[in-house]
Amino acid sequence: MSHFQYRVSHINLPRLYASSNAGMSNTHLANRQAFFRHRIIPRQLVDTNLRDTTTEIFGHRVSAPIGFAPIGINKIYHPSGEIAVAKVAGELNLPYCLSTAGSSPIEKVGKANGKGPRFYQLYMPHDDELTLSLLNRAWDSGFDALILTTDTWQLGWRHDDVANSNYAFYRGIGADLGLTDPVFQKRCREAGIDVEKDKVAASTKWIDSVWHGRAWSWEKIPWLIEQWKKISGGRPFVIKGIQSVADAKKCVEYGVDGIVVSNHAGRQVDGAIASLDALENIASAVGDKIYIMFDSGVRGGSDVAKALSLGARFVFVGRLWIWGLSIMGEEEVRHVMKSLLADFDILMAVGGINKVDEFDKSVLESYPKSYSMIPEKVL
């Protein structure tokens, strides 16, 4: 392991990359504050001895309405990377989402996940042939829903990352998903880059081939939906990063199967709307027309309950398990997620909720939006 890898994996994380936010972290702060203004109203004398935390997502019956959000370059947190996380997700029967920024090959991650439900999160390359190669690899490896992330074609301004030059790909670390792609390997050969001998050059080309320099528009969505449906035989297509009612309505108009209401945990647009507030707006507008999922700011079982009550049908978590991965690898990912499941299950037990679909606005008392401008640290 290089000095850089050791430094990032064992000293600076989770303080740095996993915990970095856009700008002054105002969106990150707002995400947490939004949860505080909703309070759960417990119901008494409800027999919850036979409560059921399971739910269904895209045809999969899963243990709880909780999934592993897509997070890239897991190997900077622990050498086992995505392999360990996918394994735990499969064990727990919780959906696992693999990021295009993954530091392990798609095929190995799929194998590690076993029979678990798994979805592929796409950052769409500038090269259509490369996009199709990624989609085919994902489908062939058992990833049966596609999640297009639209809010990160360019990284937000994150002070910690800039100050510490904390961009692993430019150091030749963590781009294994891309470097193992046959189309990308062909592009490297065309550019005179030997993927095996010059990982820095190859990794730099990978990040520049996918993220930098191309903002996509709605015009590209019909093509991507058509290609994925053709490859997968009609499996779900989802857009992640939706925050406005107008964009949610666009998704309905374009025939998108689901959306993830997400502001990338406050890592992209500083001073933006809290994702939970966006969820409430969007669910009120299109909740009966499209499958709504949520992420950004979730820290415990009550947060999951609040998101479900405000209209989400499923909730993804990211930082919780990535912090665990950085501390003790597979063992800590398992501990963190089993703890979250226990937290959610006990909340249902003592809150008088027997089934996931019983969560609605009647479970909450909600107060007016009121966000402090004091620059406090909120984990």
Concise synopsis of the structure shown:
The chain has 14 helices and 12 strands.
| N-to-C order of helices and strands | HHEEEEHEHEHEHHHHHEHEHEHEHE
Rg: 20 Å
Give the strand order, joined by hyphens, for the main sheet. 4-11-10-9-8-7-6-5
CATH topology: TIM Barrel
Number of helices: 14
CATH top level class name: Alpha Beta
User: Helical content, roughly?
Assistant: 40-55%
Q: What's the β-strand tally?
A: 12
Number of domains: 1
Main sheet properties: 8 strands, parallel
CATH structural architecture: Alpha-Beta Barrel
Question: Which of globular, elongated, flat, extended, rod-shaped describes the shape?
Answer: globular
Uncertain runs with pLDDT below 50, 5 residues or more? 1-11
Structural class: alpha/beta
Mean pLDDT: 91
Distance between the termini: 29 Å
CATH superfamily: Aldolase class I
Work out the strand percent: 5-15%
Binding site for glyoxylate: 17, 123, 264, 267
InterPro entries: Aldolase_TIM, Alpha-hydoxy_acid_DH_FMN, FMN-dep_DH, FMN_HAD
Keywords: Flavoprotein, FMN, Oxidoreductase
Binding site for FMN: 70-72, 99, 121, 149, 158, 240, 262, 295-299, 318-319
